Structure formats: C-alpha cells, structure tokens
C-alpha cells in the first residue's frame, strides 16, 4: 500500500473532472525537506520555525537562522516556502526564555504577542527571513493574529528590518508576500478587515477549532468534543473564504484538517485549492483527490451546510469518502 502510494509522488493532484489541488508540506526542520520533495510537495505551506529555537541554550542568531531558512528556500527551488514567525507559548516552551506561569497558556503570552513585545527578537527573525528571500520564493506568515493593529505593528518591524538590510547593502525580496494565520475566532469575524492588510490567508484549523469550541486541543478528557466538522467551523470557513475572495487574496489551509481526506469536499465546495499538511498525509490525500469527482464533492459539501450537528456532517463526509474507494 505504501509502495503503491509512493508511485503517486510525481502524479499531479487533480480530481477526476479536472480540478487541480495544490498540496504543500508542513515542516518543522530542514531534515523533513527531503521527504517533502520526495513525496511531491509543491511547496512548503507552513515552516514551523519554533523548532529552531528549541533544544538549545540561547536564541539563534540572525546568521544561524538565515542559514536554515536559506537552505529550505533554496531546496524548494521555484516552489514557495511560507515561513511562519515564532509561535512559542501555549504548549511550547524554551528553557532559556522562561515564560510566566499562566493559568491559561493557550489564552496567554504566545506567538505574535511575544514577538510584538520582544521586538528585537522578532526583528532578528524577520531580518533572517528577508535575507533568505533573496534565494528563492519566500513568504512571511504571522501566527495568532487577533487584530488589525497586530498586523500593522508587525509590518512596522518588518519595514525596520528592511531598512536595516538596505543600510547594510544586503539583498532581499522587497515584494515578499506577508500573510496571516486565521486561527482565532476574532480573526474570522474581521477577516474582511484583515484581508485589506494581508497578501494571503492561511487557515490554522488546529487552533481555530480549539478556540471556537472552547476545547483545549491538549486536554484528553475533552478530546471527544474537539470537532473540526462542527457547523460553527464550517460557517467560519465560509466567512474566511468569502473575505479573501472579496479582497482577491489567496487562501490556503495548513491545519490538520487539510490532512484528513474526508475534508476534501469542503475545500472543493468552498473553492479552496491550496492545502498544506504533514508529510505523512500528502500521498493519502492526493490518492483521494485523484478518485474524487469535484462536482459530486461540491454537492456533498452543500449538503453539509444544511446539517445541524457535527455527527451528521462527519458521517456524511465519511460516507462520501468511503463511497469513492
Ligand atoms: C494550526 O493552529 O492549525 C496550525 C497549523 O498551527 P499549529 O498547529 O502550529 O498551532
Ligand atoms: Mg496554530
């Protein structure tokens, strides 16, 4: 089965009736790159940079970060790499950067909130990413955005990083696309406003589901309540996509939901053709896309929007998935 799937690595990801889906990889290290390329990823849709900061005793320097980002960007060649700025806090801690003990770390000092308070760390990372952008198609993505102010503040620091590189005579892509993760409910509700400030959206369903349903993604006791196929999530996906479409910016998905082949009808129904997932999911999802008729999938998606419960939606999508085998 695994060998059979591997034959699909070089096959284009397209439905039976000709709808193309772009499948990219989520990676957390340079090591994973070879696998991503081997399995035919068309880009890196999410590079989780926090792993560069973990398992060490000090913050990585600009040069150290640049070296890693450059390697990733270069290896992807013409395919694009979305580098997400530091997303620590929540469940991820650094030994050398003690964060205050918090009662609700997932509602606490995390991701862009840390970056905007420790601006020197943020600027160093942005500078390293900009330098890498001279070596291949690079995009910057901010995590945990909840307001327009955060995007503007982050962009201000980005401009500072650019000015610094200009002064040093170091090249970078001055038109580097800068996007935001949509993973906080407020970001969904103001997606139209955020779209005005962003070059692209990437939907982070892992956190979005946690925050929309108020279900801690790490808490096993309530894991049965963590429902990506909740009607509230489906409606939010629609809001995000409509806002992006209205502003004419691209939207992709990089949460685990993208790696669950049962979700394919939802993306086809919404007109989202850009998915990023863990490497282990790439070929499985591609196999499913190759065996899907987009027209049928779209009508399944329409049915989903008429259902009132997660159980019914999940069942419909599971049945649709199994009918195509
Ligand atoms: C997400 O929240 O969906 C996501 C892709 O980011 P992470 O899992 O790293 O929080
Ligand atoms: Mg997230």
Automatic annotation (TrEMBL):
Residue ranges of domain PEP-utilising enzyme C-terminal in the record: 3-291
Composition skew (Polar residues), residue ranges: 320-325
Residues annotated as catalytic: 254 (proton donor)
GO biological process: phosphoenolpyruvate-dependent sugar phosphotransferase system
Entry's localization field: Cytoplasm
Recorded GO MF terms: kinase activity; metal ion binding; phosphoenolpyruvate-protein phosphotransferase activity
Main localisation: cytoplasm
UniProt keywords, alphabetically: Cytoplasm, Kinase, Magnesium, Metal-binding, Phosphotransferase system, Pyruvate, Sugar transport, Transferase, Transport
GO cellular component, one term: cytoplasm
Domain of life: Bacteria
Catalysis performed (reactions): L-histidyl-[protein] + phosphoenolpyruvate = N(pros)-phospho-L-histidyl-[protein] + pyruvate
Binding site for phosphoenolpyruvate: 48, 84, 206-207, 217
Co-factor requirement: Mg(2+)
Residues the entry annotates as binding Mg(2+): 183, 207
Enzyme Commission code: 2.7.3.9
Function, in words: General (non sugar-specific) component of the phosphoenolpyruvate-dependent sugar phosphotransferase system (sugar PTS). This major carbohydrate active-transport system catalyzes the phosphorylation of incoming sugar substrates concomitantly with their translocation across the cell membrane. Enzyme I transfers the phosphoryl group from phosphoenolpyruvate (PEP) to the phosphoryl carrier protein (HPr).
Family: Belongs to the PEP-utilizing enzyme family.
Protein name: Phosphoenolpyruvate-protein phosphotransferase
Source organism of this protein record: Paenibacillus dendrobii
Gene name in the database record: ptsP
Residues of the whole record sequence present: 250 to 574 of 590
């Amino acid at each position: 089965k695994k060998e059979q799937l591997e034959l699909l690595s070089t096959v284009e990801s397209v439905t039976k009736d000709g709808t193309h889906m772009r499948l990219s990889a989520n990676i957390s290290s340079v090591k994973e790159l070879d696998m991503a390329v081997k399995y035919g990823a068309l880009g890196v849709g999410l590079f989780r940079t926090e792993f560069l900061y973990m398992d060490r005793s000090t913050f990585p320097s600009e040069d150290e970060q640049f070296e890693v980002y450059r390697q990733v960007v270069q290896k992807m060649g013409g395919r694009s790499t979305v580098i997400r700025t530091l997303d620590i806090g929540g469940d991820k801690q650094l030994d050398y950067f003690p964060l205050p003990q918090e009662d609700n770390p997932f509602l606490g000092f995390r991701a862009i909130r840390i970056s905007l308070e420790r601006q020197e760390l943020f600027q160093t990372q942005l500078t390293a990413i900009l330098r890498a952008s001279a070596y291949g198609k690079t995009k910057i993505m901010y995590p945990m955005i909840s307001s327009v102010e955060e995007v503007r503040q982050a962009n201000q620091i980005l401009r500072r990083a650019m000015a610094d590189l200009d002064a040093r005579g170091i090249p970078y892509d001055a038109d580097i696309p800068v996007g935001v993760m949509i993973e906080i409910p407020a970001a969904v509700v103001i997606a139209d406003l955020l779209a005005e400030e962003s070059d692209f959206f990437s939907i982070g369903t892992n956190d979005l589901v946690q925050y929309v349903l108020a279900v801690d993604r790490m808490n096993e006791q309530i894991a049965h309540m963590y429902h990506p196929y909740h009607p509230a999530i489906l409606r939010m996906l629609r809001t995000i996509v409509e806002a992006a479409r209205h502003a004419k910016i691209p939207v992709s998905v990089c949460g685990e939901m993208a790696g669950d082949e049962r979700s394919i009808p939802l993306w086809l129904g919404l007109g989202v053709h850009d998915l990023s997932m863990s490497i282990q999911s790439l070929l499985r999802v591609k196999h499913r896309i190759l065996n899907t008729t987009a027209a049928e999938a779209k009508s399944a998606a329409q049915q989903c929007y008429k259902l009132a419960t997660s159980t019914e939606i999940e069942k419909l999508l599971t049945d649709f998935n199994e009918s195509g085998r």
